[in-house]
UniProtKB/TrEMBL annotation:
Protein's name in the database: FAD-binding PCMH-type domain-containing protein
Keywords from the UniProt entry: Alkaloid metabolism, FAD, Flavoprotein, Glycoprotein, Signal
Highest taxon listed in the record's lineage: Eukaryota
Alphabetical list of InterPro entries matching this protein: BBE (IPR012951), FAD-bd_PCMH (IPR016166), FAD-bd_PCMH-like_sf (IPR036318), FAD-bd_PCMH_sub1 (IPR016167), FAD-bd_PCMH_sub2 (IPR016169), Oxid_FAD_bind_N (IPR006094)
GO biological process terms on file: alkaloid metabolic process; nicotine biosynthetic process
Organism of origin: Solanum tuberosum (Potato)
Family of this protein: Belongs to the oxygen-dependent FAD-linked oxidoreductase family.
Pfam families, alphabetized: BBE, FAD_binding_4
PROSITE patterns the record matches: FAD_PCMH
Length: 513
């Protein structure tokens, strides 16, 4: 039947049921009805029966969407939480774990991508990865692109609903800013597009966390004009090479440089190779410029001569090659790697957090970060500074639920990874200590955070779904600022019983379930 069941018993009891794509379009109406009836009435849902009426057949297209609809429909009848998995990159695992019985709807086989180069648009199913989207666009055109994140195995289903900051966001805005239509299954089982869902719901799913409002099946995006060549560079520096002054100066120009320039900064530390030596702090200036090398050198000389960039540091390449460059694949790697779902490292533990910086961090503040880097045992602790400004500053905070616009110099992504579970407590304690230290240098009232870097430390809903507005607002305003109230009103209108819920979903004004 193309559906599988996974059972797992841990200290958190849960059941995951994965519905995968089936060739419904090749089956007769009667066969579809019988197949769905068997699937949903048999042991597929651990003995829970769910009769499939002609409602399904009368209202659903014959595609993988039918399977997804059936899963949503049956889950609602039996009041089972659903977890929607696209790429599986949720920082807190909310797309595939829960403390209550739940159903996983795995969208990985809903990954069709249809490119229209004449209209400069694309329809993208929610199970596709960012890498697949980039690859399929480049297949069709060398002068069209899309703006989204760096990691090619991230699924578009979650990335787009959280806003979608990307390499060209200073030039084109976020992924959500470039979405022009969507198809969604709502809490009443209706399949809606932009026209039928209305502008409120369409607004909410573009940065407000789509799994609060329904299950997005596909997105229509506008493709973006780019030159055939872009320019990239990676320039490393250490403390002995004046890193502190370079980072301090970077903060004053990163949001003000040409909109075509993303001057990203990575801060890391590693163990000294010498016995008893301190950790070494590294900075990596990693850049994409939408244009040629000579233009880039001119801009860098005017804005950031202290870095000492020279032509030999720079590489001109196609936009699609720049994706591999930013994702740290070796030069010459086949573009086919973008179609690989398994390129992400596995077998390690991870904790991430985020912040927004609106005033440059002082020299003393930076030196305090270096001291904290000396207290971590892992080689994989990192701070990533992602510049804002440009187009991001020209869009209103309320244009989409993603509110991080004018006034932000850069976003900080904190992360630490480790290899053994026994080291979890000390590494989580370290990143929390760093986050606490940074409080005086970042945005306040609220201390803002990026929804796609989900962090349950900010606050959680009640497990049973009975979450008050006041409780959810604790974490909600950090992700969405003043947009949180509008999201709650939309949730109340479209999902008043709070069917689509998780530990950080938008609650309706009355969320008794």
């Amino acid at each position: 039947m193309g559906s599988g069941v996974t059972y797992r018993h841990t200290n958190l009891y849960w059941i995951g049921v994965t519905f995968r794509h089936t060739n419904w379009d090749r089956m007769s109406r009667t066969d579809i009805h019988l197949a769905l009836d068997r699937m949903l009435r048999s042991g597929t849902l651990t003995g829970i029966g769910c009769h499939v009426s002609t409602y399904i057949l009368d209202r659903m297209p014959r595609s993988g969407t039918l399977t997804v609809w059936a899963a949503v429909h049956c889950s609602k009848i039996h009041d089972l939480q659903i977890r929607i998995r696209s790429g599986g990159h949720d920082y807190e695992g909310l797309s595939y774990i829960s403390k209550t019985p739940f159903v996983v709807i795995d969208l990985r086989n809903l990954r069709s991508i249809s490119i229209d180069t004449e209209k400069k648009t694309a329809w993208i199913q929610a199970g596709a990865t960012i890498g697949e989207v980039y690859y399929r666009i480049a297949e069709k055109s060398k002068k069209l692109a899309f703006v989204a994140g760096v990691c090619p195995t991230v699924g578009v289903g979650g990335h787009f609903t959280g806003g979608g900051y990307g390499m060209m966001s200073r030039k084109f805005g976020t992924a959500a800013d470039n979405i022009i239509d969507a198809k969604l299954i709502d809490a009443n089982g209706r399949i809606l597009d932009r026209k039928s869902m209305g502008e409120d719901l369409f607004w909410a799913i573009r940065g407000g966390g789509g799994t609060s409002f329904g299950l997005v099946i596909s997105w229509k995006v506008k493709l973006l004009d780019i030159p055939e060549k872009v320019t990239m560079f990676k320039v490393p520096r250490t403390l002995k090479q004046n890193v502190t002054q370079l980072v301090y100066k970077w903060q004053h120009i990163a949001d003000k440089v040409d909109d075509n320039l993303l001057l990203r900064l990575f801060l890391r530390s590693s163990k000294s190779p010498f016995k008893g030596g301190q950790r070494i702090v590294h900075a990596l200036f990693k850049t994409m410029f939408v244009g040629g090398v000579n233009e880039l050198l001119h801009e860098m000389q005017n804005r950031f001569p202290e870095l000492g960039l020279v032509k030999e540091d720079c590489i001109e390449m196609s936009w699609i090659e720049s994706i591999l460059f930013f994702a740290n694949f070796p030069r010459g790697t086949s573009l086919d790697v973008l179609l690989n779902w398994n390129t992400t490292n596995q077998g390690y533990y991870f904790k991430g957090k985020s912040d927004y910086v609106q005033q440059p961090i002082s020299i003393n503040g930076l030196e305090g970060i270096w001291k904290l880097f000396n207290q971590v045992d892992e080689n994989s602790a990192e701070l990533q500074f992602s510049p804002y400004g440009g187009k991001l500053s020209n869009i209103s905070e309320s244009e989409t639920p993603f509110p991080h616009r004018a006034g932000n110099i850069f976003m900080i992504h904190y992360s630490v990874t480790w290899g053994e579970i026994k080291n979890s407590q000390k590494n989580i304690a370290w990143i929390q200590k760093l986050y606490e230290y940074m409080g005086k240098y970042v945005s306040k009232s609220p201390r803002a955070a990026y929804f796609n870097y989900r962090d349950l430390d900010l606050g959680v809903n009640n497990i049973n779904g009975n979450t008050s507005y006041e409780q959810a607002r604790i974490w909600g305003v950090k992700y969405f600022k003043n947009n949180f109230d509008r999201l709650v009103k939309i949730k109340t209108k479209f999902d008043p019983t709070n069917f689509f819920r998780n530990e950080q979903s938008i609650p309706p004004l009355s969320s008794e379930v």
